[in-house]
Amino acid sequence: MLTSTSTQLKSALEDWPKSIDDLGAASAMSYILPSQHIVNSPNVNINPANSTDTGNNLPHIARPQTEIQTAFEMIDMGILSHSLVIKFIFSPDGIRLTQRQYIKSMLADFGLSECRHVATPMVEKMHLLPDMGMPSADSILYQTMVGKLIFLIHTRPDIAYAVSIVSRFMAAPQENHAQAVKHIYRISKKQST
C-alpha cells in the first residue's frame, strides 16, 4: 500500500506543472516580495498601499483561480490570515507579518515569560567559542531553543546574526552559549506584549 501511495504522489507531482501550464495559469501566478510588499506577475503589478481591495474579487486573480478550481480539487478559503503560526495582517499600507502568539508561547515554554526586555540581541563584545571551559548545557534544550529562534527569523531578521552565532554550538553547548540564547529570547519579549 505504501508503494502504491508513493507512486501516486510521485505521478501527481510530475503532472502538476504540466497541468498548470496547460491551463495557462503559470504565467498568472503571483509572487509576494516581502521587502517591497508588492504582488508581481507578468500581467499584474499591484501595490497594496495603492489598492483598497485586498480580497479575492480582483479579476486577474479570479480567472486563473476559477480555471485551477475546475481542473483540481480546490477550496477558496478567503484571505490568508494565519499560516505556520505567522499572522498576516493586510492593510492599505501593505502586508504585515507577526508571530506574537508564537513568541508568547515560546517564552512560556522556557519559563521566560517574566524576563526583562533587552535592547540588543547579543551582549556587546561577547565572543563565543566552541570550548570556553564552562560546564556543559543540556544539548536537547539548547537545540530546541535555537530551533525555535531559527523559525522566528522569518519575522525578526534583526536577530538573524545572533541566532546564526549561537546555532554553531548545537553539538556541544556550554552554559555561556545557553546564556547567549536566553539573551536573544529576552529581546523577543518586547514584541510579545
Automatic annotation (TrEMBL):
Residues 55-123 form the Reverse transcriptase Ty1/copia-type domain. It comes from the Eukaryota. This is Reverse transcriptase Ty1/copia-type domain-containing protein. It holds the Pfam family RVT_2. InterPro entries: RVT_2 (IPR013103).
